[in-house]
Structures are given as C-alpha cells and as structure tokens.
Amino acid sequence: MFICLSTSDLHDVGWTSHQITTALGCCLRRVRTGIYAVAKRCSHPNHEFIKAFATAKHVHLPVEESGMRKQDEDLRILVRSYTGRMPPETVLSHRSAIIVHGLPVPYFDQGSHPFAEAIHPRNGVRHTPMLVRRRELADDDIVVLDGTPVTSMLRTLADVARDYPLAFSVAVLDAALRQGRVSERAFTEYCEAHRPRTLRKRVETTLTLMDGRRESVAESICAVRFDEYALPGFEPQVEFFDEKGQFIARTDFANKKAKVIVEFDGEGKYHLMGNNPRAEMEKERRREYKLRNLGYAVFRIRWQDLFTADVFLRIRESMNSRLADFR
Question: Could you tell me which residue ranges the DUF559 domain spans (predicted)?
C-alpha cells in the first residue's frame, strides 16, 4: 500500500513547515493540499521518520514515470490519501471504489489527470482532487474498508455501468465475475431492483455483454468492440483439437461459423515466466500454423488496436467473405 501523511501528522512529530518543504524535494511528494505521499527511501539524517515508512513491509513507493501506468499509480495514491480523511457523509465511489475493492481500472483517457470520486446524499461538487456526485445511498450500499466508507461491490459496479463508457464498465464487471466477487445473477437482480432514472439503456447493455470467461481487461474491451462493430458469434476461450483429438490451442475468441480467430497480443507476452522470447515466438508461430491448417483466419490485436476501427473493419470484411464462401 502507499503511505500518505498529512501536515498535522508531520507537525505532531515535530516537523516544521520548512522541513516539509525541504522533504518535498527528497522523499515526500505532494498529493493534494496538506497531504503528502512517501515517495522514496532516502538517507537524509533529518528524514528518519519518513524512512521508517519507506522501508516498512508491504509499503509501495511510486515508480512509474509516464503513460497509463503512471495515471493508474497516481490515482491509487490519491485514493489512498483519503483513508481516514473522508468528509462527513461522503462515500468513495466509481473508480475510487474500484481501487479500494481491488478491481482493475481498465484504462485512462489520454492526458487526463487523476481525481477521486465520491457520493454525498445532499451535495454535489467538482474540485481538482475529487468529484462528488449527489445521489441517494441506502445503508447496504455502504461498506467500510480500511477505515474508509466506500460503496458496496454491487453499488460500485452499478454506478460504473451507468456513468462510464461501455468498454470500461464491462471490463470492470468481467473482472469482478472472474474473481468470484459477484455473480451474474446477483448483479442483474441488483440492477433490476435499483433502476437509475437516466442512462438505463447503458446499464442494460452492460448486463447483456458481461461474461466472466474473459481472462483480461483487453479481452473484455475486445468483446465490446465486437458488439459495436456488429461482429456477432465470437465465443471466448475456445479450445481446438486436431483430427486425432490432440489439443492444439485455446484461443481468446473464435467464430466457428465464419472460421475466424481473434487473439490479443499482450505487452511482454513472450517474456513472461523467464521464457526465451525467440523460442516462445516460434512456438506461437507453429500454433498459429496449425489453426490456419484447420481453415481459420487468425487476427492478432494489440492494445492500441482496441481504440481504432481498422482491425475490426478488416475482421468484418473477412467474416463476410468467408460466410459468403460457405453458403
């Protein structure tokens, strides 16, 4: 976990404002007004108090420097900064609740700055570090985790389905299903019992697209793109065998009617588990050759492809052509 300290925490151990300012150039990082994250281990003799936190077990220190990983890390630090410091009657929600519940944040808009999210029963406000939505909360919609009030798992998933894009919400819901944190039935029943006044269609579409068989955020987003680009018939985690019944592969997605396979190429795929990348690539090449020998077209999708139309239009063209040939 990340460690965040307030100005009063530091004053309580005898630190002056000047010492805090000096530490900001060393082992502290300002998260928001009056709140600082422990940023690194240092050897400054006057920073032993900070060093004790930085070297403790299970403490994470900021490491990311750019890109989506840094956005994710910055948001996690910001959310952590509200532990034990929430305004009265305010409950962490949406992406902030996703983080507290241990679910992945699927992606961030390019160039966006992190902000926490919360719900208050009477007041809604937007300022730099936090967006507070004015909404009703039932008692069973609130849980306390690590000393901080947060929306329950079901309420969090329902809020995300209502307020976030379809690809984002389906990816979060699939992760919750995959981890066994919620069931399709429980979530469906919750949404039916708590229909929102607005954006009902978005929630209903999320319910039709959720599937815990998908094994990653990328696969969930890919499944949403299939729906958006009118590419029906793709099933996740399809196994293939040769004519002798020997296992060939389990694919991310396959459309058996059109004989099209879609695989996601994740970052570092050939470097996992200490394997030799060249040997892994050769193994993958042979695997794909066997699938093509079964008459399948194989498309490989990278992360950036999930946010453009090109590859999905090519998949649709291939599907239409193959379906025409099979008639």
Answer: 251-306
Question: Which pLDDT value is given to residue 318?
Answer: 95
How far is 215 from 175, CA to CA, in rounded Å?
8
pLDDT, position 269: 44
- Nearest of 53, 117, 61, 56 to residue 91 by alpha carbon: 117
Using one digit for the tens of pLDDT, what is the confidence trace for 37-63?
Answer: 999 998 888 899 999 999 998 899 999
pLDDT at 28 over 90: yes
Measured in whole angstroms, the distance separating CA 287 from the mean position of its chain's CA atoms is: 30
pLDDT (tens digit per residue) in 233-290: 999 999 999 888 889 899 999 999 999 999 998 654 433 344 555 666 677 788 888 8
Distance CA 36, CA 50 (A): 11
The pairing of beta strand 247-255 with beta strand 235-241? antiparallel
Round to whole Å and give the CA distance between 236 and 42. Answer: 48
- Distance from C-alpha of 59 to C-alpha of 1, rounded to nearest angstrom: 5
SS3 content of the chain, % helix, strand, coil (to 5): 45, 20, 35
Q: Where are the domains of the chain?
A: 1-63, 65-212, 229-326
- Rounded Cα distance between 187 and 311, Å, is 32
- What is the C-alpha separation between 179 and 163, in angstroms, rounded? 23
Question: Using one digit for the tens of pLDDT, what is the confidence trace for 140-157?
Answer: 999 999 889 999 999 999
* CA 309, 310, 316, 317 torsion-angle sign: positive
Residue 276 has a CB neighbour count (10 Å cut-off) of 11
- Which CATH number describes the domain made up of 229-326? 3.40.960
Residue 148's H or E segment, with its range, is: strand 148-151
Question: Which residues have CB under 8 Å from 324's CB, separation 6+?
Answer: none
Residue 50 CA to residue 5 CA, distance in Å, equals 9
**Cα–Cα distance, 135 to 234 (Å, whole number):** 38
